[in-house]
Amino acid sequence: MRAVLRVQRSALLVPQAAVTDQQGSYVVDTVGTDDRVAKRSVQVGERTGTMWMIEKGLQPGERVVVEGQQNLRTGMRVQSKAFQGNGE
Length: 88
Prior knowledge:
Blueprint: E1 12-15, E2 19-22, E3 25-31, E4 37-48, E5 51-56, E6 63-64
Antiparallel strand pairs: 1-5, 2-3, 3-4, 3-6, 4-5
């Protein structure tokens, strides 16, 4: 059974797999308009299904890496494609 405790409009959600816990702080790999990778510290909120709510550190429309982060280095150029989530 689930109960709605609050509704947050315009919440920024990213797949759980995009967020890495690094010694108590949270980081995501972003892909800029130049297709280069940058690490970004974020403040996470609640988890909703398989998604994290991001409270600070990302803006709507920014691209984040969901798979293969262990192979990335800051400044590396990547080819991105849309994430095919499970719809939760």
